[in-house]
Amino acid sequence: MDHKDEYADIHSELRPYAEVLRFFKELEQNGDVKSYCNGSNIAGRWIFQIFNREFVEGLARVINAAVSSKRKKKPVLEVMSGDGRLTEFLRPLIRKQCIATDSKDGRYNIGYPKWVKKLDAMEAVVEYSPLFIVVCWEPYLSTAGIDIVKTGIPTAWIGNPNKCGHTDIFEQPYIPMQNKYALSRHDYFLAGDFKTDIFFFNCEPDWI
Question: Is residue 124 part of a domain?
Answer without folding.
Answer: yes
